[in-house]
Amino acid sequence: MRTVGVEEELLLVDPETGEPRALSAAVLARAARREEPEEEPSFQKELHAQMVEFATRPQSRTDELAAELTRLRGEAARHAEEAGCAVAALATSPLAVRPSVSVGRRYRWMEEQYGIATQEQIVCGCHVHVSVDSDEEGVAVLDRIRPWLPVLMALSANSPFWQGRETGYSSYRRRVWLRWPSAGPTELFGTAGAYHRRVADMVATGTVLDEAMVYFDARLSARYPTVEVRVADVCLRADTAVLMAVLVRALVETAARAWAAGEEPVDHSISLLRLADWRAARSGLTGDLVHPVTLRHAPAERVVGDLLEHVGDALADNGDLERARASCAALLREGDGARAQREVWERTGSLREVVAACVRLTQE
């Protein structure tokens, strides 16, 4: 069974006002005191000092992944409380924020190179790593999962507010993220050699600093033998983050099996994939999506159902089929993170209350 790991970025907020707080250094210092020196740190700094990131270890069993993800959210909350703030699984801040770029040569380079786009990137995502046997298998997977990635974004949508305003989007984080010059869907690569040549050519332009700054929606990890899928908002609830991991692992396994069987990937154009991406960010689960196979609009419920059917064998083999069905049904019935935020806003008229509710839901 393939291993899977999750990286989550969390927003640090004032527990009273709900405004983002630039306290990542204090939070990380407290986390470092509690981790074993010989282990790779679970918590790391991010581009902005109002954010903190954690990463689970690779796991084969979904129950163990879920337990670790919940534990790390709890630890993040404790470290933040000790530092005088709280953590919220919010992909964007509902309240206005003054950006504070973290200290470091890499971040300063980004600020100088990309200007206001760097300042505005206070956005929190959920990245899923799934093990692959080789770069060749990994690139075959990248070529075959492309059409399904907008569906994952729709399921995770959790950013309807930006700088104190309702955006009309379920995932406004996605619109902000695409301001990076290397972000977005990719063409078919065909071989690992072609993939690595494309990445090297991008670095050679001087527009990105290194391979890690090539922000494809799905890529080969520069550090681990994994495919890394990067389209999801950070999920408001931990069980939705687990669903992302379950679905990504199943997509990777399904794609690897198709490659081994000699099935060619579908050659959808990037222009159409961008439209599917935009629609998923705009609608989330509240309206139609662009179907990954037909590239025609279809109800979100049907598209999610077809995703489950597409990866059903892999889900069953991993022991995740019933969990995935139940989680998707709950999201379609009760709504995604964007809907949860909007419901608080409609009930209270207070973005501060939206943040407070999300702080609570982050740790459920």
UniProtKB/TrEMBL annotation:
<dbReference type="InterPro" id="IPR011793">
    <property type="entry name" value="YbdK"/>
</dbReference>
<dbReference type="InterPro" id="IPR014746">
    <property type="entry name" value="Gln_synth/guanido_kin_cat_dom"/>
</dbReference>
<dbReference type="GO" id="GO:0005524">
    <property type="term" value="F:ATP binding"/>
</dbReference>
<dbReference type="InterPro" id="IPR050141">
    <property type="entry name" value="GCL_type2/YbdK_subfam"/>
</dbReference>
<dbReference type="InterPro" id="IPR006336">
    <property type="entry name" value="GCS2"/>
</dbReference>
<dbReference type="Pfam" id="PF04107">
    <property type="entry name" value="GCS2"/>
</dbReference>
<dbReference type="GO" id="GO:0004357">
    <property type="term" value="F:glutamate-cysteine ligase activity"/>
</dbReference>
<keyword id="KW-0547">Nucleotide-binding</keyword>
<comment type="function">
    <text>ATP-dependent carboxylate-amine ligase which exhibits weak glutamate--cysteine ligase activity.</text>
</comment>
<keyword id="KW-0067">ATP-binding</keyword>
<protein>
    <recommendedName>
        <fullName>Putative glutamate--cysteine ligase 2</fullName>
        <ecNumber>6.3.2.2</ecNumber>
    </recommendedName>
</protein>
<keyword id="KW-0436">Ligase</keyword>
<comment type="similarity">
    <text>Belongs to the glutamate--cysteine ligase type 2 family. YbdK subfamily.</text>
</comment>
<dbReference type="GO" id="GO:0042398">
    <property type="term" value="P:modified amino acid biosynthetic process"/>
</dbReference>
